[in-house]
Prior knowledge:
seven-stranded antiparallel beta sheet, 9 strands
Amino acid sequence: MANPEVVTSSCSLHQEENGRTFNQTTSPSEELLLEDQMRRKLKFFFMNPCEKFWARGRKPWKLAIQIIKLAMVTIQLVFFGLSNQMVVDFKEDNTIAFKHLFLKGYVDQTDNTYAVYTQNDVYNQIIFAVNQYLQLRNISIGNHAYESKGTEQSGMAICQHFYKQGNICPGNDTFDIDPKIETECFSVEPDESFYIGTLEENKLNLTLDFHRLLTVELKFKLKAINLQTIRHHELPDCYDFTLTITFDNKAHSGRIKISFDNDISIKECKDWHVSGSVQRNTHYMMIFDGVVILICSASLILCFRSVIRGLQLQQEFVSFFLLHYKKEISVSDRMEFVNGWYIMLIISDLLTITGSILKMEIQAKSLTSYDVCSILLGTSTLLVWIGVIRYLSFFQKYNLLILTLQAALPNVMRFCCCAAMIYLGYCFCGWIVLGPYHAKFRSLNVVSECLFSLINGDDMFATFADMQRKSYLVWLFSRIYLYTFISLFIYMILSLFIALITDTYETIKHYQQDGFPETELRTFISECKDLPNSGKYRFEDDPPVSIFCWCKQ
């Protein structure tokens, strides 16, 4: 074993962290000593937490924190998910209720086909919606109310948009139209009579010129309170619903489509009081979120420190190799010092901290950004669980997946770029040719989803069968288009993609049996034969190794 005093004086902890300047005038013995110290330093850097513990007694704090963080972040996500699910259910239930309240004859699952075809039906729909709005207090079984502005209540705005001038005579194939769009609006106040009459009575005094009419919009606001959260020991939210009923006549095709839009905003209730332990439970949840922030902050600091130390050691090794061997280190060897797992954990910690702060504001009813908080917490939890794979990679059998993905990624990316060119070509072709005759090719986004489903073998027969036969030429083209796409992507491109992964998998298995190709970095480190428990990696101030370490020697 090397002299501990020499090792300690030549390779102190301070020098390890801050780098070293090598002198070209050193003697051969000193140069060999420096090489040995550099090899030990590099070998220690690439050890797993168990080996580092046996080498210097360094506790695996990052591993312990990651395990604790994994549990706490998952629990936090589950609690937030349950709370968010109540919000989503309340929104959806209210939207369905409003459709049944304000749309005459509405049936569930008919949003795409809900339309009217006669002038009387248009007037009847408008009058029905207005009457339902005025009688809301008497007919609604929910806790809905009109929006209040001071002492007054906001009403329903009825607006029609139409061409400024239009004289259309389809029988003579003539028309005279001014495409400038004008708007006329009036409002119906909630304090008016509970019943505005029938179409014949025409108390609305609404007249529509269907030859010029583009759209009719009924817009109004309602409010509600989500009381179901009390049963789950959470403070209720106050909801503002901005409802818009649109009669769309832009096509002038004889079919006026009716759409219903519900723009929902959540805010803190102005004056509330809840008896019991709801507020105390909210405080407990905020304390839990605070602990999560502290754990993630500790993980962030430790991972960031490890990344910095890796970059410092990279610069030190590059300088050492250039000075002693007159060689430049390759980019692949340089990247060995940049630990991608730590970078991913840093991103995860930042997302968790931001999402936890946002969650605390939501629980305090200062903010209502549920969607943003869901994205932050969901993404951070995904990265935390993926980060656990790093510790499984220390075992050879578990490391096979990671090594296969890592080795196959460059070839996969190049392969996907080539396949994407063919895929985009089919997307544009299908959109422009089949779009007018097939519902699944009406827009580029829908075309891409349809083709991706076909690659995975989903809904093939329906895609063939739903093609309209109004044009035999287009129908024949659709058969050639679909058959060539399915044959090309499923039987050739997808098979080649799988073969690419399989070939990489077999190569990695061969490497694990016969050894991986040695790089200059790994060759340099392999000359150090000192075992982690040899004592040559320890410094004077290192703590003794505990016999209670769970890691195998």
